[in-house]
Amino acid sequence: MSEAGGKGAGEADGKGAGEAGGKSAGEADGKSAGEAGGELAEVQRAHWQQTYGAHPGMYGEEPSAPALHAAAVFRAAKARTVLELGAGHGRDALYFARAGFTVHATDFSATGLAQLRDAAAAQGVAERVTCTVHDVRTPLPLPDASVDAVFAHMLLCMALSTKEIEAAVAEIRRVLRPGGTLVYTVRHTGDAHYGAGIDHGDDIHEHGGFAVHFFPRALVDSLAAGWSLDEVHAFEEGELPRRLWRVTQTVLG
Asked: How far apart are CA 95 and CA 225, in angstroms?
């Protein structure tokens, strides 16, 4: 799931059959939103498993720019433990470990996490990295107030409904200690792919097999309710280019 949010280089620009008649893919098939969302999530899981299997270490070894920023924020906050959601094959989780953090890396792709474990051993940081296969649509397998910081690069903008995103952020808040920091990135509605491809409803559009939930600014603000919203930074990444927000927010208390 890593950097998930649909970073595939082969994303198509053409519109899909699911847009026929102006209906979303789920509506076109006569399925409820819940049924369609669940099926889409399982399709996405299989797609990422296949992608990581076919392209080991597909994002390279260098950390992402958001991870570099997050590490600086976490150091300033004196964080020691970092939970990464959607860690994939681990380029950012491994960077955090090399930087001295204790890292718990989760992803719904067992294939990606196997690559992360192998890389952690090769880089001599295996003792600082724990991996858990986890679907972000379910509760986090961690106790309350058990981590100092959470990082999620393009995880929340995967094929998740708004309700699932809200539930995921509530879980993140549950496991963060008071004063803990969340840094996440998402593609937003200013992205060139927003409104194109297969429309799954709820601002989710699919290109080249990768489904993305494009965030409106109102969703960012609502997810920060009850937090300190420290920064919303606009940036671009990759081809097209993708347009994203890097959001930093802190648990009050």
From this structure: 30
Alpha-carbon distance values, 62 to 38, 68, 218, 221, 251 (Å): 33, 10, 32, 31, 29
DSSP designation for 188: B
Residue range 180-204: mean pLDDT, rounded: 96
- Residue pair 169/144 in contact by the 8 Å Cβ criterion: no
Range in 8-12, 101-105, 230-234, 239-243 with the lowest mean pLDDT: 8-12
- Cβ–Cβ < 8 Å for 159, 204: yes
Distance CA 93, CA 89 (A): 9
CB-based contact 16:206 (threshold 8 Å): yes
CATH 3.40.50.150 fits 19-251, yes or no: yes
Q: What is the pTM of this model?
A: 0.81
For residue 205, what is the enclosing H or E element? strand 204-207
- 3-class DSSP state of 199: strand
Condensed to tens digits (0 to 9), the pLDDT of residues 17-66 reads: 333 334 444 444 555 444 545 677 676 566 556 665 565 555 557 999 99
Average pLDDT score, the chain: 84
Beta partners for residue 243, in sequence order? 236
Domain boundaries along the sequence of the chain? 19-251
Q: Which residue has the tokens 């950390």?
A: 63
Which of 226-235 are b and which e, b meaning 16 or more Cβ less than 10 Å from the residue's Cβ? ebeeeeeeee
Phi, psi of 63 (to 5 degrees): -70, 155
